[in-house]
Each structure stands twice: as structure tokens, then as C-alpha cells.
Amino acid sequence: MGLLALGTALDWPDAKKAANQVREWGIEQLLTIWRKARVKERDALLWGDEIEYLVVAIDDEQKKVRLSLCQADVLKALAKDEALAEKDITVPDLQNGADHTGALPTFHPEFGRFMLEATPGKPWGIGFKDLLAVEDDMKLRRDIAKKHMDADQFPITLTTFPHLGLPDSLRPEYPPSGPALRSQFVPDEIANPHIRFPTLAANIRSRRERKVELNVPVFKDKNTPSPFNDPIVNYDLHKWPEDDDVRNGAAKQDCVYMDAMAFGMGSCCLQITFQAKNIREGRTLYDQLSPLGPIMLALTAATPIYKGFLVDTDVRWNQISRAVDDRTAEELGEKPLVNDRWRIPKSRYASNSTYIAQDPRLRPEYMDPNLIVNEELKAKLVDGGMDDLLATHFAHLFIRDPIVIFSEDLKELDPEGSNHFENIQSTNWQHMRFKPPPPGADIGWRVEFRSMEIQITDFENAAFAVFIVLITRAILSFDLNFYVPIPRTTENMETAHIRDAVMKEKFWFRKDPFPKRTPRQSPLQSPMLNGISEPPSLGGTSTPRNGTNGTSETCFGPVEEEYTQMSIDEIINGAQDGFPGLIPLVESYLDSVNIDVDTRCRLAVYLDLIRKRADGRLWTGSKWIREFVRKHPEYKGDSVVNDKVVYDLFEAVREIEKTEGRKKQRGWEMLSARERQKGLDD
Ligand code: ADP
Ligand code: MG
Ligand code: MG
Ligand code: MG
Questions:
Q1: Range name among 75-84, 113-122, 142-151 with the lowest pLDDT average
Q2: Whose alpha carbon is nearest atom 12 of ligand 1?
Q3: What is the pLDDT of residue 513?
Q4: pLDDT tens profile 196-226
Q5: I need a labelling partner for 47 at 20 to 30 A (CA). Which of 230, 265, 411, 551 fits?
Q6: How far apart are the CA of 659 and the centre of ligand 4, in A?
Q7: Could you identify the atom of ligand 1 that is nearest to the CA of residue 117?
Q8: Cβ neighbourhood burial of 137 (10 Å; 0-12, 13-18, 19+)
């Protein structure tokens, strides 16, 4: 989350009126940024991770865990801690030579008042030593956060709080159903009180003319009633017009029903941002990492409980997607288009719909045939010199309305600024984000990988961060090709939600990732990709790349033969006579560079976690939590996760963190607690 500007936020009808102005100004700002930054070269290879925490208050007497709405207090305590600021704190891993002296982690607010975000104090560099410093830095962040909380408060890295939306689950407690969220389950006080957040929630609700609607299939255990009707739903409220939603069928049978942004944006994730050496490399990374999004979502699955019930999905993604889905009935295709411009297939929080690399291997058939683009704004970008592919990407993001507009920002356009551009860009929550350099800062083109779920331990979070960083090195070093048609990635994202997808499902993936010589008469030398081999500043103009006009079959062969369905194990560890596997590719990359044995061994521990997750020797967080609940003596087989189970779950989570720390001291043998647990599998 970026800086939080203050100002007078417009309510929905007024914000809607100013939407075109914001978009037009945003496009002007983007063009200015792009013109200046497209020639940037040789930026350092930097990267950074973001860890999000739930803060809970644990009541040992009552044996009860509640969310603690203490974000502001913790951030204030951190800011006031002069001793901390002055202390020459270094990342404990300095014996590795990582140059992070004095770079204290930084803490940021998030949507939920029970959330915290922490990042390294400065981005990590290209060196392998930095990869080995991440875990200790994450531990340091957790320690610092804890030290600025009350004795009974703890930063926990679970994606969602299992009892969010139930009575008596917040501290302090507030009654539900305030004017902004109008939720029958959670109070407005659940959200960060900065005007941006209640406005975001209220304007999304106003734009769609009803509350957001989340229905997650309940996990049908042996004693779960069938049909299942969410017993927490209250059909008798008459405080807000939106209370009619449930009477009009918003809560679906056999589902856990939720009705507010907090149920999605209150989830914690693990994000990794990379700085590329130039725009061209950034565009390549954006495309090549995109097909990995759903794979990493399934592999990091950690979300099996909502509102006190086990659910039949394993990940958070679609819940967030629905929690901020501002589409109207017309845009959703429920009513004929009268007032709105387009039917829009995806929520503004969704998997990506564009590829942007100027790469001869990018076939028109890979593009999303259902892509909606704001053609007028695209024309402005193209007139301003931007190549078709990139203009299409941004003009697709700009089909959305700005949700939070500050009236002060509408007085005058700051042509050197980025506020209007960022307004649209930062409320397009796709699984990859292409981040242009912020004006006035010495920062390059960045790509953010956003699909992963937060993991219970810092060891796991570090392992996934390290793995993704090494994958980017392998992609660039071996010129790997993971392209599949975008609709296949969209489909994979759904597959990633299925319970135990990591073991039981198959995902579309490219069979051969290795580069081939580009055919001499590549159809991609059509006007579409003019300028491919020229500097990015010379990007050409082109015709629409929606895959319907013109194929590249004569040169490349049928697209469908390029990819097939694979298990996550095959994708990560490789298949015999098939896909080589992401881990073996990373290993080959490590073989090709000069690293000492100790570093290599320590990296191997992280890669081993990924390998074992993919082949099932280690469980996902989702499976572990689900089985923990199901084996708990107080669980009645009816999908209900009660207070005592949640209390014991949090105890176990904290124990795993500690045990891992001790294990690490004894020599990098991780997660045996999990492995022991796995032995109990039925
Ligand atoms: P957002 O919340 O908008 O995604 P943040 O400001 O929280 O962005 O930062 C995301 C991550 O990017 C952090 O880990 C930060 O260290 C890292 N980062 C900051 N600057 C750079 C850079 N120039 N290159 C790569 N990563 C960076
Ligand atoms: Mg965040
Ligand atoms: Mg952030
Ligand atoms: Mg981020």
C-alpha cells in the first residue's frame, strides 16, 4: 500500500461524475512517466517482499482468540520508539555479508484495523547473501512488531481470522452494521479509519447498488446438515436498504455467506516485487511470471475456514475478488447494457488479462479474446507514442472507475505527478502488477507477483520468496518461455481454489519452456509487433491482438499442442520425459553461477520445502489447518470451528513458529512438526 493522502473524499454519485476527468488525467500522467522512464537502462536488480499479519488478542483464561483492532496503536508505538530508530540494528544474518546495516524493517497500515504490513527497510539486492538474510529479517519484523504490542497481542501470519464475522470476535467490540460497510456481521470499525478505506467500501457498494456478496461452499463433513443454510445469517434486519439483500437471495444454500469488503481485503498475503534493469526486461518478467500465479496460489494454499465454518475451498483469492467487485448488474451481464459501456468478465481483483512483452514468442493466440479495452484512452496512449501492446494493457486497466477521489485533486492537474494514474492502477488488483517508476524517485520498472498466500512461519515465507526470486533469475538467464493462452491461466486460477488442488488437480502448463530459434518468417513480424528487436522506446503501432485475426500456426504449430494439463508435482519437480520442472530449472541456474557450497546448501533447504509441498510430503497450510480442526476432540464433524478449536489452533501455530526456530539452530531440519502431523493422515 502506498502513501495515504488526506483530503475530502467524494461520495459515490459525485465520484462517478469526476471519473472521466480522473481517467483522462491519469493517462496524461502515465504518458509523462512513460516518456521519461522508457529509456531508463541498467537499473539495479532489486527485489522486496511484503508480509501481512493479523493481530490477535489471546485470552488464556477464557481460552478465546479475538482480532485486535490495534493497528494505529502499534504503528504509533513503532513511530515513537526513538531507541529503535537510533539503534544500529542490523539484520542478524550479517555473518553472511548482507549489506543491510541500519535498514530497519518498515511497517505499514493495511485495510483491516487488525492488520499490519511489514517490508524490509530497503529492497534486497541481486546477491545470494541477500536471499539468505530474508528469513532473519522476517523474524526481526515479527519480533519488533510483537515488542510494540500488549502482552496478550500477537502478530500471526494466517491469511484470515477463522472467526471474522462472528459475535464477540473483536477487541474492542463494536456492534455490526455501520453506514459504510452496512454489513450484518462486522462493524465499520473493522476497517482502517483513514477516510480512504470506508470510502472505498461504501463507494464499491454504491456503485454496484447492493452489498458485495461472498458465498463460499461449506465443507460437507459427516455431520454437516444437508442442505446447509448458514445459521449466522439474519433475515430480519431492517436498518439499511441493503438489509434486503439476503431476503432477495444473496445468501446461497450450502455456502458460508459474507457481505463486506473486510472478508476479502482483511486477508493476508505474501507479495514479491522485482525491479527490472529496463522496461523491456520488466515486460518479459511480467509475462513469464503470469502463468506461475495460479500454481503458486495452490502451492501456498492456507485458507480453509470462514466465519467459523470449514469451507470446501483452500485459498483466499476469489473471496477478495468478490469483496471488492464493484461491477453493476449491467456489467455483470444480469441486465441489458443501458447505462454502462461494457459487459466486464472479471472483477477488478482478478487474474491478469494481458501480456505485454515485446517478445517474438508471444503469439496472438495467447491473448485474451474477451479483453475489454477503453479504446479512446488507448488511442491517446498510442498517439502519445506508446506501442500497442502496452497501450492495450493500460487501456484495459482504465475501463474501471476510480473509487476514491479527493476533491482537492480535481482542481488542477499535476502533469509531473502520478496520483490520478495510481488511483486507477492501484485499484486494479491483478495477480501481476506492472509498476512504472514513480516520478521524481530513482526507482526503475517493477513487476509485482501477488498471488501467494501468507505462510504460518517465516521459514516458509522466506522459502517462497527465495524460490520466486530464483525463478526470475532462471527465466532471464535461460530465456525461458512459460507462455500459455491467458484463458488457461484464468481457468487455472479457479482450479487453485479446489480443496487439495495441489495434490489432486491438474493445471494447464507449457510443455517445453526452452527457447527455440525464432522462425524467420514469424507472423509476429506483422505490424503487430513492429519494433521487437529495437529499443523499447521505438515500440511500433499495431492492430488489435485479440487472437482472432491472424494466427501464427504456420510458423509455430498449433497452440494447443504447446501446453497440457500437469499436476503441481510435475510442474515443480518435473515429469519423466516431460516438463523439466521449475525446481530442476532453478537448480540448473544455481549450477551455472558461482556460489559457495555453504550458500548453496542453505538455499537447498528452501527449495526442498517447495519440492516437498509439491509432491505432498509436506502439507499446505490449508490441509494442516483443516486436519487440525477435524482431529480436535471438540470438533463434532459438522464443519463448525468453535472457540476452543480456534484457541488451540493459534497455540499450535505459535508453537510451530518456535519449534522451527529451535530446529534451525540444530541444523536446518525444518517442519518436522508438520511431517509428524502428516503421519496422522487418514
Ligand atoms: P505496494 O504495497 O504498493 O505493493 P510497497 O511500497 O509496500 O508496495 O513495497 C513493495 C515491496 O517492494 C517492498 O518489499 C519494497 O522493499 C520493495 N521495493 C521498494 N523499492 C523497490 C525497488 N526499487 N525495486 C524492487 N523492489 C522494491
Ligand atoms: Mg499489503
Ligand atoms: Mg505494500
Ligand atoms: Mg504489494
A1: 75-84
A2: 48
A3: 97
A4: 999 999 999 999 999 999 999 999 999 999 9
A5: 265
A6: 29
A7: 7
A8: buried
Q: Which helix (H) or strand (E) holds 299?
A: helix 293-299
Strand partners, 54: 115, 156
Dihedral sign (CA 63, 64, 65, 69): negative
On whether the CB atoms of residues 158 and 268 are closer than 8 A, the answer is yes
Cell of 277: 534493469
| CA proximity to 99, closest of 111, 109, 91 | 91
Whose CA is closest to atom 24 on ligand 1? Answer: 275
Cα(117) to ligand 3 centroid in Å equals 7
2 in ligand 1 pocket by Cβ < 6 Å?
yes
Ligand 1 pocket, mutate which of 131, 273, 442 (most atoms under 8 A from CB): 273
Regarding the beta carbon of 119 and ligand 1, being less than 6 Å apart is answered: yes
Q: Is 108 helix (H, G, I), strand (E, B) or coil?
A: strand
Q: When comparing pLDDT for 530 and 406, which is higher?
A: 406
% of the chain with per-residue pLDDT over 70? 88
Give the separation between CA 215 and CA 253, rounded to whole angstroms.
Answer: 9
**Identity at 339, one-letter amino acid code:** N
Q: In this predicted model, what pLDDT tens digit does every residue of 543-559 receive, in sequence order?
A: 333 333 445 776 789 99
Q: Is the CB of 266 under 6 A from ligand 1?
A: no
Write the CB contacts of 246 (distance below 8 Å, at least 6 apart in sequence).
184, 233, 234, 235, 257, 259
CA-CA distance, 431 to 579, in Å (whole number)?
A: 24
- Angstrom distance (rounded) from CA 290 to CA 508: 13
Q: Name which residue sits closest to atom 1 of ligand 1, judged by CA.
A: 1
Whether 48 is in the pocket of ligand 1, judged by its Cβ within 6 Å, is yes
Q: Are strands 349-350 and 429-430 parallel, antiparallel or unpaired?
A: parallel
Count of residues for the chain? 682
pLDDT of 81: 85
Reduced to 3 DSSP states, what percent helix, strand and coil does the chain have, rounded to the nearest 5?
A: 40, 10, 45
- The 3 state secondary structure assigned to 519-542 is CCCCHHHCHHHCCCCCCHHHCCCC
88 pLDDT more than 90 = no
Q: From the CA of 184, how far away is ligand 4's center (Å)?
A: 30
* Ligand 1 center–CA 289 separation, angstroms: 17
Burial of 341 (0-12, 13-18, 19+ CB in 10 A): exposed
